[in-house]
Design goal:
With 171 residues, the chain is mainly β. Helices cover 0% and strands 58% of the residues. The chain contains no helices and 11 strands.
């Protein structure tokens, strides 16, 4: 005697699984060091880093960056609320209340966002900027900035503000 059992039902469909978009790695107390010819040039510290499958990184907590001169002295510091690194563009971006202090010139720069490209050693933003001289109190405002990485030279793209001009002859 043979039995034949048949079940009627809907064929099972494979569930569509969304790829994981979250971080694949979480690191606490991060310290990144960049050097050239065995000399420390840049130090980035932050309490937390997330790394993603494409090697992008996010820094959800405050980011502190120090740029060093040829003899190891601190030239410039950058403090921000958070940051990220775009691997494809080789570009670091700090965001939030970004404060840059140029110790040699005694200038403070304020902006909501700042980008740093380690390959070109350039810093730039398209956002509003304010530069305050801690020596004279002069304030310079603008939209956009381009600078070398230690901020010893910079230019503001669309400047406005009040500042002193020496040697007023011919004005």
């Amino acid at each position: 005697m043979s039995c034949l059992l048949m079940a009627c039902g809907e064929p099972k469909q494979a569930k569509k699984v969304e790829p994981f978009n979250g971080p694949i790695e979480e690191i606490n107390d991060v310290k990144l060091l960049y050097s050239e010819a065995a000399l420390l040039k840049v130090k980035l510290t932050t309490p937390k880093q997330y790394r993603y499958v494409n090697d992008d990184r996010k820094y959800p907590k405050p980011v502190n960056i120090i740029f060093y001169g040829p003899t190891g002295e601190e030239l410039t510091t950058i403090n921000s609320d958070s940051g990220r690194y775009d691997k494809a563009k080789d570009l670091y971006t700090v965001m939030g209340h970004v404060v840059v202090i140029n110790k040699q010139k005694q200038e403070k720069l304020l902006t909501p966002e700042l980008n740093w490209n380690p390959a070109t050693k350039k810093v730039f933003t398209d956002k509003r900027v304010a530069v305050i001289s801690q020596l004279t109190g002069e304030k310079l405002y603008g939209l956009g900035l381009d600078a070398n990485q230690d901020f010893t030279q910079y230019s503001i793209r669309k400047p406005t503000g009040v500042f002193n001009v020496e040697g007023g002859a011919g004005l």
